Amino acid sequence: MTHQGSAVDALPLRLLTRIVNEYGDAPRAAAGESGAPYPPADALGEEATALWAQRAAPPEKALVETANLLHPVFAAASGGECADRLNTLIAEAGLTPAMAAREWDVREQWRTSRPGRTLLAAATLALLDHLRGDPDASRLGTCLGEACVDVYIDHSPARRRQYCSLTCQNRARTRAYRAAKRAAGSSPSAVTP
Fold this sequence. Notes:
By secondary structure, the protein is of the alpha+beta class. The protein has helices at about 15-25, 25-30, 50-55, 60-75, 80-95, 120-135, 165-185; strands at about 5-10, 95-100, 105-110, 140, 150-155. It has one domain: Orthogonal Bundle (Jann2411-like fold), CATH 1.10.3300.
């Protein structure tokens, strides 16, 4: 028996977040980059040389559309909302599980029935694989930094990541420090006689 559709391999998670952050409307708008040109899609090959060796880099339109469909998964307010959004992506990508064999080695293989959604299918599969290993959906998030809604996947041992990068974290700490200094300087107890 043969299964309909094309086999899909998961994107590397680092590439997935890079696509969302560099091509998604929300991250670009928050960063004031809405009018700026998109980075060249070929540059993404640095993250997935094996993937791009099998096929050409996706067109810009597919990158933007995929990024915009994925961003809400990271922005979900609960595990239930995350699951609902992933179920929507599974359907949109036409993903179905199947079993495949190479000699006596039988393994799960996902397929897409929608060839135009291969990038979305690969990105969705990456999130499914990640959540299979770590089902805590709160570890998928959007940056709390000012003027930033970039996405991240929290791999930290403490499980408390809130920023997409050290740059955003350091900016937030600097702002908080300066605000505290200003507040301390303007309080009545800080005034010297």
